[in-house]
Amino acid sequence: MQFKNTIVLAVAALFMAVSCISSDKSVGDNLIPDNQDLVVRTAEIALPVQLKSSQPLQSLSNTECAFGAIRTPEHGLAEFATAANICPNVNGWNFGKDIQVKEVYFLANVSQIFVPDNQQKGIPQNITIHRTRKLIEPTTVHNNAFTEDDYDKEPLNASEAVYFGGDSLKIHLKKSFAEEVFTATREDLDTLMRFAKRFKGLMIKSSVPEDGFFGGRENFINYGTASVFISVNFQPTWAEGLARKDTIFVLNFGTEMCLNLSSYQSNFLQTDAPGNVLNIEGAAGIKPYISKEDLKHAIDSWKSHEGLDGKNIIIARGSLVFPFEMPDDMDMSKYPPTLYPCNREYDTTYKANIFYPIMDVNIQGYNVGTINRSLKEYRMDIPSIIQDFVSKDASQLDDLTHNLWIMPTKSKTDSYYGNTTYDVDLSTYFLGSVNGPEHEKYPTLQIVYSVMED
To answer: Which of 137, 175, 185, 400 could bridge 101 with an S-S bond, Cβ 3.0-4.6 Å?
Structure first.
């Protein structure tokens, strides 16, 4: 085990300054004896890091739908598809009689793309749309929630649809699909969910790069901008003597949200003893992972080496630092802009374990894992979790809270209040790497702490 220690003599006021938290210094003054100054110290501990898949990952979204495929020599093939329930865009459809379908097509705005190689932004992808056999509900939450039995293998495409990465996607569909939709009864049309329960939904998939070909593209549609348009001619029946009428019926792609599905070949990279490099995949791919048992052992070894009692240690700052080397081509566009430790919580709504960034990410002034190209590192402050590892017994640490995945995150700032919140980036297939535990610049836990004397 590798430790580095520095001792800096200071009074309690300096301790508060180091912690970068503005505080009322009278708070807790009854807990510190008047005759006791605090000694502020620093320590550096080598992080025990593994590589582990982050599946299953929650992938329901009301913001973006992702589809495509990317193959890399490091990770193999990653495939992305998106599925959503369908429903009429308005209540009260009236089909009249003798309805004749003229044209059916899927239309969506593509908001952004992600490519591992900028020269492949315009590569051709064959896009197919499939009927789903499974209703997407709040409990259908994870990226691997669909099996091959949950959608029709035969596409609904009326013809081949080749997409070159533009800002819109239009796919002509078989008329038989619309003809089935028009068998909907008044009961089916009473509510959106009743319609969805009968007709289920659609899945968007992409062709994959051929074996031996590396690259590909992941495509994103803003949720709510995709629809199926059905052009028809029919005989109105709501009044006598009306002429036949042309109109367009619209099906929404999504009743409340979509489910972004994904699969990965990178599981072969999982290891509890990585070498010089730690691979990072976005979405539900492989990522650096720190088990609670390994981190507890590392911290207990440091405490023993220093002769410290965890009950007396106060953590001012606990930072995970992941150095990296610049890629040979100097292109950092596929690296995650931010990385932060995430743990899981059981969500009673979704009835599943859900990944969240550790709550320290929301504390103003803390390092939130923004990539630092000058220092070539990601730095993430998580003092509350480190305090647990220092002060608690191993039996008090639980799997959901204290096993940590280092995951790409994204932020959102409230335009009115100016508050910034962070969440896991659930969809973008970032590709990067940081130094592994065998590298000379290995990942570390850097702490600033003080010791209360008995």
So the answer is: 175
